């Protein structure tokens, strides 16, 4: 079964909540930019309000169509509180570099971030939930799902999958060298960017793994730095 | 001037807000664990409530003593809203690996995260603020601050530095191989961890930099992957 992913608009809504004020030259509302950031990240921060208090849960997520998804234990505070349809702020931030400017003031980060406002709902339909979990696993390690046994009924009950439609969404992206003031450009100080990225190390096999299992080919497609 | 960093307790308060329920074997409240995670991260997520709606700002942060700090434009929404002392949820999450278990259910991330609840205050004292900005720069790139011109009065006014005392704080840490069910241990599937880490690339000099400036020695101390 195909989930009702909807069709993502060319650009997301710029509302009072989602419109970026500071450094708005960095703001992007178009689908390409927003999806690009979302598809590059692995961990999101889900914020919600309970009893007037803000809470944040950091967790794995994935995107499909115009929805972001995350999962958790059916018994978790986050799932129980967010599942009732309260306002959610969904946030992803990727650090790309430390920007060393000629003044302290213009030091910065290069980054790609997305913030989405909306409400989340729990996926109740079992087939749809299974499809979502498959998409999640395949996104992390393409080729993995087919090797795994099917989830048990109990595991499916213990797992909640949340979905939030992307509507009011903004990406904010800073790239490139420092933006120094004109009068600082000749300062006798090194200026530039110290780039950062997420790197994968060599896979570490579980010491308890049964004998004779080779490292799967799908792990060989990951770029190790 | 030394900021009033306070003395961090041996362990942080386990309150109704901060106590970890799910997978509480991963919970840590001791200073060593909490500070270890905070000192390893570069970006935090600051959540607050405005008009019943949760907002999250991802930004740079640093820790000193029993306080976390972050900064922003004095005119930013986040600074204006958080500066009045509303409840804040401060969150940092570091991804250390993708855990490939023998069942989909036990797939996981290795991670280190910290969540702190409290209120933030803006640092008003100019000397204290300057000291904090120096600590921030030196934390990012030790040795950098001494090379930079002093901030101007206007730059200091345009920059707000926020401080939040660490009181109700919990770290959550998952490490090591998958935790599979006993009946899955002999499954014919590769199990283990795909480790991830933040890597730095070679420094990229600003093409507009004036001639004859060598790459500073302090950039050579950073480990490039």
Distinctive features:
homodimer; 225 residues; alpha+beta; Pnp Oxidase, Chain A; 6-stranded antiparallel β-barrel; globular; Pyridoxamine 5'-phosphate oxidase family protein (chains A, B)
Topology of this structure?
The structure is a homodimer of 225-residue chains.
Chain A: E1 27-28, H1 31-40, E2 43-50, E3 53-64, E4 67-73, H2 77-82, E5 87-100, E6 108-122, H3 126-140, H4 153-158, E7 159-165, E8 168-174, E9 192-200, E10 204-205, H5 217-220
Antiparallel strand pairs in A: 1-8, 2-3, 2-5, 3-4, 4-7, 5-6, 5-9, 6-7, 6-8
Strand order of the largest sheet of chain A: 2-3-4-7-6-5
CATH architecture label of chain A: Roll
The largest sheet of chain A is: 6 strands, antiparallel, barrel
| General form of chain A | globular
Strand content of chain A: 35-45%
Helix content of chain A: 10-25%
Order of helices and strands of chain A: EHEEEHEEHHEEEEH
- Number of helices in the DSSP assignment of chain A: 5
Give the C-alpha Rg of chain A.
21 Å
List low-pLDDT spans of chain A: none
How would you characterize this protein structure?
- The structure is a homodimer of 225-residue chains.
- By secondary structure, chain A is an alpha+beta fold.
- The first copy, chain A, has one domain: Pnp Oxidase, Chain A.
- Chain A contains 5 helices and 10 strands, in the order βαβββαββααββββα.
- Chain A has a 6-stranded antiparallel beta barrel with strand order 2-3-4-7-6-5.
- In chain A, a hairpin with a 2-residue loop joins strand 2 and strand 3.
- Chain A is globular.
- The model of chain A has no long low-confidence stretch (mean pLDDT 93).
- At the A-B interface, strand 2, strand 3, strand 5, strand 6 and helix 3 of A face strand 2, strand 3, strand 5, strand 6 and helix 3 of B.
């Amino acid at each position: 079964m195909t989930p009702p992913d909807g069709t993502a608009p060319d650009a997301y809504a710029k509302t009072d909540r989602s419109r970026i004020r500071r450094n708005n030259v960095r703001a992007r509302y178009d689908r390409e930019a927003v999806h690009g950031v979302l598809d590059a990240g692995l961990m999101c921060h889900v914020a919600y309000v309970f009893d007037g208090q803000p809470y944040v849960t950091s967790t794995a997520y994935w995107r499909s169509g115009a929805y972001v998804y995350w999962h958790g234990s059916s018994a978790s505070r986050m799932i129980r509180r967010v599942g009732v349809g309260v306002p959610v702020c969904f946030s992803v931030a990727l650090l790309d570099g430390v920007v060393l400017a000629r003044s302290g003031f213009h030091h910065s980060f290069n980054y790609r971030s997305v913030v989405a406002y909306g409400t989340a709902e729990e996926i109740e339909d079992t087939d749809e939930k299974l499809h979502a979990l498959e998409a999640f696993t395949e996104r992390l390690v393409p080729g993995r799902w087919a090797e795994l046994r099917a989830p048990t009924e109990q595991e499916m009950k213990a797992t909640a999958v949340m979905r939030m439609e992307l509507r009011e969404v903004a990406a904010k992206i800073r790239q490139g060298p420092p933006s120094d003031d004109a009068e600082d450009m000749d300062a006798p100080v090194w200026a530039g960017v110290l780039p950062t990225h997420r790197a994968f190390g060599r896979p570490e096999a579980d010491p308890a793994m049964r004998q004779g299992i080779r490292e799967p080919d799908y792990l060989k497609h990951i770029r190790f730095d």
